[in-house]
Amino acid sequence: MLSIVTLYPEALGTYGDGGNALALAHRAHARGYRVESLAISLGSPLPAADIYLLGGGEDGPQRQAADALRDDGSLASRVAHGALVVAVCAGLQILGQSFEVAGGRIAEGVGLIDAETRRGAQRRVGNAVITVDGRYVVGFENHGGDTQLGGEAPLGQVVRGYGNDGAVDGVHTEGVWGTYLHGPVLALNPWLCDAVIERATGESLGPYASVADDLYQARLAALL
Amino acid sequence: MSSLSHLRSRTALWVGSTAALASRLLRRGAGEVIGSKLALALDPDLLRHVGADRRVIVVSGTNGKSTTTALVQAALGNPVDKQTGANMPTGWVTTLIRTHGAVALEVDEPYLAEAIEKLSPEVVCLLNLSRDQLDRTSEVRQIAEKWRLVIAGTTTQIVANANDPLIVYAVGPALNVTWVDAPLVWVKDASSCPLCTRPLSVEGDWECACGFRRPTPTWHLNSRSIEGPGVSIPFSVALPGEYNRGNAAMAIVSAHLAGIQAGVAASRVSEVKEVLGRFGTVRWRGRRWHLFLAKNPAGLAALAQLTEGFSSDLVISINDNVADGRDPSWLYDAPFDEIARGHHVFCTGSRALDIATRLHYSGIESTVIATLDDLPEQVTASVPVTVISNYTAFSEWQRRGTPC
Predict the structure, then answer these.
(1) A143, A172, A182, A193: which one is catalytic?
(2) Are B5 and B45 in contact (CB under 8 A)?
(3) CB–CB contact A211 B356 (8 Å)
(4) Range of the domain at B370
(5) In chain A, what residues touch B136 (CB-CB under 8 Å)?
(6) Does the interface ipTM go beyond 0.90?
């Protein structure tokens, strides 16, 4: 049994973020897991889950999502008890101590990771590639944030694009995997999707071939 | 207008048309864009001058711009088949110098301020706002915010969709608004209140706790009529889908405010069967292909209303050229369960594998076609084959096919 909760899709679901829950559910189910996938809206209490998903969003909704997570207050203890949070783009930013929104205002984050996000010199829009443990992750970024990590490790090294700061991308702790590669990043990178499932279940997965492998290879060929 | 600035505009137009002719002679594509670009560079006030003394209706919004502009043109009694889909200043210049009398112009969302400022339109028709090609346009609420600033300063007559919270927000400060109860297919970008950010449930007569609410429309659609203040007009639309009935209603009301009798406008609009080849059928390689354009999740959600008329073979063509947006992540926001399930789907275009992967994760397997030339021998349907494409993929279908 694998339970997946997509958090606040009405606020954090700007551009195809729903693809991550879809890909996780499909690939876990294909390996014989019973999968429960649900989405909860702002203000609803967080249910127990193996994986929590946070997507991208615009400034206002991003602030609402950060406030809602702080008000709920249960995410940190759920992570301490083994849950995994996968956060992309705005979802990554709100997990830090603070993030900057339009007009230079600093908004309070959830504080689950030691990171600060400020507005960068320019918006970073384009195809992006990072390496995670020597393997490529392909995707697209579209954000204006510069994220500085405290003592925590990034998810990957930037090969193409910008990520947190032009050198590294995202964050990688025991309970939080975050990246600026936005939207359906798990759908585009089948190996990363499987790594999330393996981390959440504590079990190794057998191979599963699909058209997603062809897409991954085609994107690598196009971007490298 | 001073005679000097008149002279400058006329000189700019002469240089522009000469450049356009030269461009055509050199076979460098549709010379008009080059001509208009050059003329605009020579005379920044050109739009004001070519638009002066013209009754202009501008149409903007994320989806349905080209269709609604064509429907307004029809309602005005202008030919619809000369539509170009051009929606930026160069395109407006071209249209204005090629036509006379009242005219409808399509406006790309970021250019609304310039259109209102320089064209002094008689009517501004605002359809809807939703997520679209986020890699090259602003996020949708930023567009609503910019529109709000532009509209706050104008007394122009505005025709707006009362059901779309982002439109209502953008139009809010306007003095002169006619609200239309036009069907809306996509509300996922308005799930929090544009004014106070509280969660918003966009159903029926929606209202937020902060007081932001759906305005009372003065024009309504019934199954066979459109009802306005004191009038009820027979209404039918040849274009498919509920969303096109909404586009037609917006067009009729806009033309009516520009002086066309509503009954005349409705009757003219009812006769339009296709716009820029959209909803049209072409012949190619011995088969007939029924072409639909969808560029974003709201566009695909609109097509989900039409699936009863789709062929069993379904072609989906998605490119990632600049005009399409380089990032097809939005495919995951579109209701493919409703559109594609039960069909034999053929994925084509530069992002064919992205479509196939998207469908796969919804449990729908499909056939990836490497080049369009391989497609005709694979389809089996004897009826026109339904083709859904985004912008440049649609153009390719039009180039290959012959209208029938």
Answers:
(1) A182
(2) yes
(3) yes
(4) 281-403
(5) 125
(6) yes
